[in-house]
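hiii so um. not sure if this is the right channel but i have a protein structure encoded as tokens and i wanna go backwards to a sequence. like what aa goes where. can anyone help
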């Protein structure tokens, strides 16, 4: 074989290795199945199921770390007999019952799908987020009105922050300087300063705040109002609600597209009258410009980095809906575990 042919063969082999590595590193979607004590792992390209990971009791929320190496899962400790109901049962009436013992956040290694750590936190942990630099994780404890601060390297709680009544969803601002916490029974959003690890403000927002969110440009924040069937829009400079936008029944999670132009809101409804759609709010006109049907109990929502696809958990249908945001349509429905709630995608 000539030197030229050797070089060509090496180049081809290298290309195949790169392609194979890219395939192995494909984006994944993680779903907390609260009624099954599991996390489903989906391929974000083929939409096929890759794995099912056993975790603690009633896992409610998941969050992939910024480096994509770990998935954080809130739950109520070692698996065992559960209450048999979603943590959002009766959300329309603010009925969110705390567990009898402190909960935990578990870590899943995304390369092996193995649980590699369990970190105790407060009572009835709901949501978890990780700071943009990956150094800290923040967990809302609905049962004791606090947020646990977890050192991600040491894998232990290093601070506990008092917030409003029954904190639930939370998100970190794009610059990493603040965290907005939805206090489900308090009618407020607590603002945590990440430098001091203290709550520095409370914003009155309305009835049943369930989850917060930001536009990627950091200009606006949002909170779903599960008992008003609306979303409150917050100016992040003044920390004031500047308007409310009516959406579907019992809105829960929300997520802005990467271009900061559209907000997706999942409308869960109730078990007797499930919501089955996601509302798309135009962030220039602040009007709902499109409603896309997903499945019974639309709850969690996340958008991929390109803004092409959104993934929505259908709590009562035991599935994840894949939405094509270019064509504004439902493109696929993927079966997952019982009572899927939180959802996250590889950064």
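sure thing!! here u go:
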């Amino acid at each position: 074989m000539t030197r030229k042919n050797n070089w060509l063969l090496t180049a081809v082999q290298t290309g195949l290795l790169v392609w194979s590595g890219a395939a192995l590193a494909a984006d994944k979607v993680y779903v907390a199945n609260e009624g099954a004590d599991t996390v489903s792992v989906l391929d974000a390209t083929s939409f096929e199921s890759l794995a099912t990971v056993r975790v603690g009791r009633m896992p409610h929320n998941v969050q992939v770390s910024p480096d994509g190496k770990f998935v954080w899962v809130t739950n109520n400790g070692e698996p065992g007999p559960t209450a048999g109901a979603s943590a959002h049962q009766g959300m329309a009436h603010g009925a969110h019952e705390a567990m009898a013992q402190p909960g935990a956040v578990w870590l899943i290694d995304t390369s092996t799908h193995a649980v590699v750590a369990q970190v105790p936190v407060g009572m009835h942990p709901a949501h978890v987020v990780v700071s943009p630099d990956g150094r800290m994780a923040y967990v809302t404890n609905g049962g004791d009105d606090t947020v646990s601060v977890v050192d991600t390297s040491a894998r232990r709680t290093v601070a506990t922050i008092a917030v409003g009544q029954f904190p639930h969803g939370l998100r970190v601002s794009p610059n990493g300087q603040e965290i907005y916490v939805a206090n489900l029974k308090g009618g407020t959003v607590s603002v945590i300063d990440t430098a001091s690890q203290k709550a520095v403000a409370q914003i009155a927002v309305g009835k049943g705040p369930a989850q917060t969110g930001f536009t990627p440009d950091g200009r606006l924040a949002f909170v779903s109002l599960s008992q008003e069937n609306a979303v409150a829009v917050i100016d992040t400079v003044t920390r004031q609600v500047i308007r409310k936008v009516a959406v579907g029944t019992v809105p829960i999670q929300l997520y802005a597209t990467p271009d900061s132009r559209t907000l997706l809101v999942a409308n869960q409804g109730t078990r007797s009258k499930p919501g089955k759609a996601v509302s798309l709010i135009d962030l220039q006109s602040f009007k709902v410009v499109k409603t896309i049907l997903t499945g019974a109990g639309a709850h969690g929502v996340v958008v991929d980095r390109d803004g092409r696809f959104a993934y929505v958990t259908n709590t009562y249908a035991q599935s994840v809906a894949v939405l094509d945001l270019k064509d504004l349509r439902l493109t696929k429905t993927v079966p997952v575990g019982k009572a899927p709630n939180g959802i996250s995608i590889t950064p």
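oh and Confidence is low (pLDDT under 50) at residues 1-24, 82-98.
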